[in-house]
Amino acid sequence: MSQFMSPMTILMVEDNALQRRHLEAQLEPLGHRLIAASNGQEALALMRHSVPDLVIMDAVMPSMDGFQACELIKANPTTASVPVIVLTALSRDAKDRSYAAGADDFLRKPANTLLLHVRVQTHLKIHALELKVGTPAPARPKVLVVSASSLVRSQVQNHYGKSQATFLEAQGEDQARVQIMAHRPDVLVLDTELLQGSAQNLAVAIHQSEELRDLPILLLYNPGELETWSRLQQPVADALEKPLVAQETRRRVALLSHLAQLQKLVQA
Q1: Are 32 and 148 in contact (CB under 8 A)?
Q2: What distance in Å separates the CA atoms of residue 226 and residue 80, rounded to the nearest whole number?
Q3: Rounded to an integer, what distance in angstroms lies between the CA atom of residue 104 and that of residue 110?
Q4: Counting beta carbons within 10 angstroms of the beta carbon of residue 31, is it exposed (0 to 12), middle (13 to 18) or buried (19 or more)?
Q5: Cβ-count burial 46-75 (b if 16+ within 10 Å, e if not)
Q6: Residue 126 to residue 235: CA distance in whole angstroms
Q7: Could you say which DSSP state residue 138 is in?
Q8: Which pLDDT value is given to residue 232?
Q9: List of domains in the chain
Q10: Which stretches within the chain are classed as H helix?
Q11: For residue 142, how far is the Cα from the chain centroid?
């Protein structure tokens, strides 16, 4: 578990016992309390007695599927603020259906452990902060994009919307460090491919810095690269596979901008 987060409760909703045990094994290192339900109906019954801090929901289950369960969770004022991550092997329109049902995030099975960890930790952190300060209106963030690729730098800005944020750019580790200290961005979008230096070194240095450790980092990675980051202790807040897709880029940057805004309100 992150040294900066107290244990919280995660409800795993999965009808397949083997997959449920696998998910439990993936989540156990985070140190949170894990409870389980075998379908949506059972999950809703559990949540009537005790509201968890996060739900990880399968989509295809007997009695009540994950989409319907998610809609009912979000329609209930008592549980509406609980983040729901849909985790499914369904393809085609599963992601769109999940978000339409009110899900806060979406992952495909089998989930990469590091990706699962960072998404879970970030949503739990946001949930905990919202319980303290409420849900603020969206603010215009300052976003630093660090990449050797001019295409990647421009894609991040265009996908999120140039008018929706103040964007800064850097091509390598040293330049990024200068920009961070000079401009104090709200979010760092960090490509694994830099013109100079190491993305891992930069992420670890930020995470270990008392002054900078709250800076949310969105890692942009190529297929297969996440495994090289798995030995690091929570160096990033989210990760997004390249090539970038506009809707997902926008969603991921917005999530971390929201986290940064909440952190500022708590520290104020």
Answers
A1: no
A2: 32
A3: 19
A4: middle
A5: bbeeebbbbbbbbbebeebbbbebbbbbbe
A6: 17
A7: P
A8: 76
A9: 9-133 (3.40.50.2300), 142-267 (3.40.50.2300)
A10: 17-27, 40-49, 66-75, 94-100, 113-133, 150-160, 173-183, 199-208, 246-267
A11: 19
Contact 109, 87 (CB under 8 A): yes
Core vs surface per residue 172-204: b (16+ CB within 10 A) or e = bbebbbebbeeeebbbbbbbbbbeebebbebbe
Amino acid at 198: S
| Count of positions (residues) in the chain | 268
- Residue that the structure tokens 């009537």 belong to: 48
User: How far from chain centre, in Å, is Cα 190?
Assistant: 15
Give the global pTM: 0.95
AA letter at 115: L
From residue 58, alpha-carbon distances to 9, 12, 262 in Å are 17, 8, 29
Location of structure tokens 């004022």 = 77
Tokens (6 digits) for 235: 């160096």
How far is CA 106 from each of CA 37, 73, 197, 252, rounded to the nearest angstrom?
19, 16, 32, 11
Q: What is the pLDDT of residues 194-242, one digit of tens each?
A: 999 999 999 999 999 999 999 999 999 999 999 889 877 678 999 999 9
| Segment-wise mean pLDDT, segments of 10 residues, the chain, 268 residues | 69 96 96 96 96 96 92 97 94 90 96 95 97 90 98 98 97 98 98 97 94 96 90 86 97 97 92
Collapsing DSSP to helix, strand or coil, 198 comes out as coil
Which pLDDT score, from 0 to 100, does residue 225 have?
92
Query: Residue 267: CB partners within 8 Å, gap ≥ 6?
Result: none
Return the closest-CA partner of residue 254 out of 240, 235, 234.
Answer: 240
